[in-house]
Amino acid sequence: MPPFKRKKSPKSFPVKVCTLDAELEFDLEWRSTGRDLFDLVCRTIGLRETWYFGLQYEDSKQFISWLKLDKKVQDQCVSQQPTTPFVFLGKFYPEDVAEELIQEVTQHLLFLQVKQAILSMDIYCPPEASVLLASYAVQAKYGDYDDSSYKPGMLASEDLLPQRVIDQYQMTPEMWEDRIKIWYADHKGMSRDEAEMEYLKIAQDLDMYGVNYFAINNKKETDLFLGVTALGLNIYEKDKKLTPKTTFPWSEIKHISFDDKKFVIKFIDKSSTNFIFFSPKGMNKLILDLCIGNHDLYMRRRKPDTMEVQQMKTQAKEEKQRRQIERNKLAREKQLRETAERDRAAMEQRLLQYQEEIRLANEALRRSEETADLLAEKSRVAEEEASLLAQKASETEQEMSRLRLSAIQTEEEKIHLERKTREAEFLTARLVEESEKRAAEADRLKNELLEARVAEKQAKENLLHFLSRNTTTPLAQTPIPSILFPSSCSLPTDLQTDLESLHISGRELDTLGMEPLVTELTSYELMGDGDIQELSLEIEKQRVDYLEKSKHLQNQLRDLRSEIEVLKVDEKQSELDQLHDEQVRMGETKYSTLKKVKSGSTKARVAFYEEL
To answer: Which of 72, 304, 332, 599 is least surrounded by CB atoms within 10 angstroms?
Structure first.
């Protein structure tokens, strides 16, 4: 019988990695580590600021975990499905987004993640700030507001506001859209990356931004929350995640370890007692992982930039300058195009005006010619009548002479002769007066005819001057795109950033030797003696309170809050809303609260925690 043949295991397995705006699929070698997969994803999306991100997955026990980079993917209790799923997410948050974020891809991924957290209400955001953030999100997606292309209802279908905000106000989607549109119109000229950065700068001042919450207990078994942040560890009362009761900065912490459910944190100040808390067993490794990563970044920010980071900042600065030049060039082209369109419209208007003047002149000329012909005919008739009257007057005069010479006249004949004489004199005077009037009217009509012909000549000269000027002289002596001749219009089209082609090289794996087993990490020395000495020599830089927004912005926020306050439904308010309103009344902010709870010695804050 042929010897039994063992079925060969596959050399690779499929993996799906989802980012917040894309899905990636890979075939991984069976021996690939988490680092191999993580590097593959980063190369594919062009990410170099890798230290903020990680691969999240749901393990076989339905716990949320982060893929360990130094262990094989297949050895990490990943749930077995036809395609192993991972989510590429931001694992750590920067302290100051404007100062730390370098690449646009890093900024975009963090923007999408924070936006999703705000919409899903994992990060509390006040209603008025939600409207402002929504306007920046719209700017990042659609670009500048254009009143001609904007259609009512365009934003109402977008997922822009947390449902909690919508539910607690008696406002229709159209009412929310009108308020978002007002802010959106104010962001004219802002690029996508600038809008995303403004979104993040506002979001980082929200109390729950960048906080990973874990349910814990102190020695008195009080239900509390541990918040792991970029600045340290915060302690919150149950259901009050907005304001911490106390905090322990990373600069005070030396060592973290856990044993089963018990966490022990040791401080640099040896006179202080240890900070002890108890967490669910499935969360202890995740808590330790996040503490280590946040502390490493905290220390890294306080040291000079590495050569890699310096190179990245230089490249980012050059790229930003290049894009700014492109934007300025595009803005100039747009301005020239708009100027050309306005000038063309003005020329067309002037042309229509000249055409109308010519039409009116021709009409006046036609009427003048008709009137002149009529007056000429009337003048001829008047001259004929005057001639006839003159002839009759002459005959009458002759008749009068004949009558005067008559020797025999009766008294009646004499009276009749006198009457006839008076009538003849009156008729003669009337005919002379009528003749003079007809002559004056004929002169006036001849003058009107002459003026009409002069106006026609002037209109024709204006039109010829306008046409000759636009065929021989450039408009306003400035170069203008050929907007009047679309067939020959040539505008620059290469305004998009060239994407570097990504080449993914496979990592050769050592298939002959056995990899050493990695022991589970249960403790970590956050600071050695050298780090403590270096940190003690450096003056701890406190984060300055966020610069106050412009007066215009503050007034708008206050006005919006006052405007929608009357439409609020108090029964719909959550405990977080009530806590925020109390903060506003007391004039407190995220940073003033942290400053207050950080006051006092480490020992005093540990004692305060144990008494909660």
So the answer is: 304
3-state secondary structure 58-119: EECCCCEEECCCCCEHHHCCECCCCCEEEEEEECCCCCCHHHHCCCHHHHHHHHHHHHHHHH
Q: At 44, which CATH number?
A: 3.10.20.90
> Quick check: 92 and 101 in contact, CB under 8 A?
no
Q: How confident is the model at residue 504 (pLDDT cuts 50, 70, 90)?
A: very low
Global confidence as pTM: 0.69
The string of pLDDT tens digits covering residues 116-138 is: 999 998 999 998 889 999 999 99
Q: Which residues pair with 56 in a beta bridge?
A: 66, 87
Residue closest to 230 by CA, chosen among 604, 594, 529, 528: 594
Domain identity same for 326 and 286: no
- 291, pLDDT greater than 90: yes
Q: Do residues 394 and 360 share a domain?
A: yes
DSSP label of 492: -
Kindly state whether residue 61 falls inside one of the protein's structural domains: yes
Contact 154/174 with Cβ under 8 angstroms?
A: no
Higher pLDDT, 399 or 17: 17
d(CA 502, CA 500): 6
In total, how many domains does the chain have? 3
Let me know whether 323 and 292 are in one domain.
no
Residue 24, burial from CB neighbour count under 10 angstroms (0-12, 13-18, 19+):
middle
Whether residues 328 and 434 share a domain: the answer is yes
Tokens encoding 181: 């549109």
Domain that residue 71 falls in: 12-91
How far is residue 57's CA from residue 67's CA, in Å, rounded to a whole number? 7
d(CA 462, CA 458): 6
Maximum CA extent, the chain: 182
Are 187 and 135 within 8 A, CB to CB?
A: yes
Here the tokens at position 458 are: 């002037």
pLDDT digits (tens, 9 = 90+) for 412-460: 666 776 777 777 678 777 767 776 776 676 677 677 667 766 766 776 6
